[in-house]
Every structure is written in C-alpha cells, then in structure tokens.
Amino acid sequence: MEIQVLGKTCLFICHLRKRLTGFWDSLKLEGKVALVTGGDFGIGRAVCHCFVMEGATVAFTYVKGPEDKDAQETLRILNEAKTPHAKTAIAIGVNDLGFDENRREVVEEVVSAFGRIDVLVNNAAEQHMATTIEEISQQRLERASRPTSSRISTLLGML
Predict the structure, then answer these.
(1) Which of 76, 83, 87, 156 is a Cys-bridge partner for 57, taking CB atoms 3.0 to 4.6 Å apart?
(2) Are 91 and 60 in contact (CB under 8 A)?
(3) 65-122: per-residue pLDDT in tens?
(4) pTM of the predicted model, to two decimals?
C-alpha cells in the first residue's frame, strides 16, 4: 500500500509543479528510449509518467496476467501525457524477470520496437505477505536475497 500512495504522490507532484510554476516540460529526455521494469503501478508508473512528460519514449514491464489491468491503465496515462515527438508507449508482459531468457526477450522487444534503449530503470520487485518470519520459506528468502546487481548487469550486457 505504501508504494501505491507514493506513486500517486509522485504523479500529483508532477501535476502540481506544472500548475504552480507554469513549468510544463524541459524535454530533457526527448529522443531517448526508456525501459522501466515494474512500470505498471506505484513508483514505476510515476517514473514512466515523468519520463514521457520529459519527452521520452517509454517501454515498461509488468507481470502478465495479474497486472494486465494496471498495465492498460498505465498505457492510457502515458499515451495521454506523452509529448508529440515521443512514440507510443508499450507494455511488455513477462512472468518473471529473474530469468536471463525473460530479460533477453524484454530487451529484444524494446530494441525491435524503438531501435535502442538509452535509460534503464530497474524497479521490478515482488512482495509476499507474511505475519511472522517463520512463514518465509528458504526458497523465498534465497530468491529475495539474490543480488539485484547481477540482474542489472545481465540487462546491461544485452544492450
């Protein structure tokens, strides 16, 4: 729930800044292609939104199936907010970015659609509810503690 609130707050701040200052955009990311993992909700959605307002063409990943509705809503928000020179945003449904093959497919899809990736935001995460530490399985603990840096380096190596 905290991520959802923070994501909405980020979107609110972007709009508030525009209304109060008259500052609309500086197009700092115009002509750039951004890939945001976990971009369908919360902080990821807010990052995507700010990027399109700055002129970026955005692709984001989401968990295929359970997050389809969030992804469609995010696409609507992004495509309404994008600048005229940015291409239409795309959503890439994946089952698990923890596997090299899935990351490779995401990179290939973005490069196929837009020719390159200039900005990578590694925001994908997973959350499992537990009321006590004993409820966390060894497998879940190992997966969560796997270094994110190895996932990022794999993605960067594919660019």
Answers:
(1) 87
(2) yes
(3) 888 999 999 999 999 989 898 999 999 999 888 888 898 999 999 999 999 999 999 8
(4) 0.76
Q: Does pLDDT of 151 surpass 60?
A: no
Tokens of 34: 């951004």
Q: What is the CATH number of domain 2-158?
A: 3.40.50.720
Amino acid (1-letter code) at residue 97 = L
Three-class SS string for the chain? CHHHHHHHHHHHHHHHHHHHHCCCCCCCCCCCEEEEECCCCHHHHHHHHHHHHCCCEEEEEEECCCCHHHHHHHHHHHHHHCCCCCCCCEEEEECCCCCHHHHHHHHHHHHHHHCCCCEEEECCCCCCCCCCHHHCCHHHHHHHHCCHHHHHHHHHHHC
Q: How far is CA 31 from CA 83, 84, 114, in A?
A: 10, 11, 10
Token couple for 127: 């959350």
